Amino acid sequence: MSELRELLERHDRVMRLLLEGEPVLGQEPHLAGCPVCGPTAAKLAEVARWLLEAPRPRPGLLRDVVERTAARCCSAEERP
User: Fold this and answer.
1) Which of 11, 14, 36, 12 is nearest to 24 (CA)?
2) What is the pLDDT of residues 26-76, one digit of tens each?
3) Cβ partners under 8 Å of residue 69, min gap 6
4) Residue-level pLDDT at 30
5) Among the four 18, 20, 30, 46, which has the fewest Cβ within 10 Å?
6) What residue spans define the domains of the chain?
7) What is the CA radius of gyration of the chain?
8) 38, 32 in Cβ contact below 8 A?
9) How many degrees, rounded to 5, is the angle at CA 29 between CA 27 and CA 33?
10) Which of 2, 3, 34, 6 is nearest to 18 (CA)?
11) Is residue 24 over pLDDT 60?
């Protein structure tokens, strides 16, 4: 039972680190053998690469989105 508990704790620790974007140093054997953590790490690395390759939004885009959203919300609230 102790081995199972240790395995589950290691799994939880690795998944938490992966999802928080923290380094998973020293956990390579778990990543290589775990059918959940290994693919999760690979998918998160792929998403990180996509984000690095994505074009930067034009300056002022966030302001424009907030202004337009606020205008829609206000006009919807004014309707009877």
Assistant:
1) 14
2) 888 888 988 999 999 999 999 999 999 999 999 999 999 999 998 877 765
3) none
4) 87
5) 20
6) 2-77
7) 22
8) yes
9) 120
10) 34
11) yes
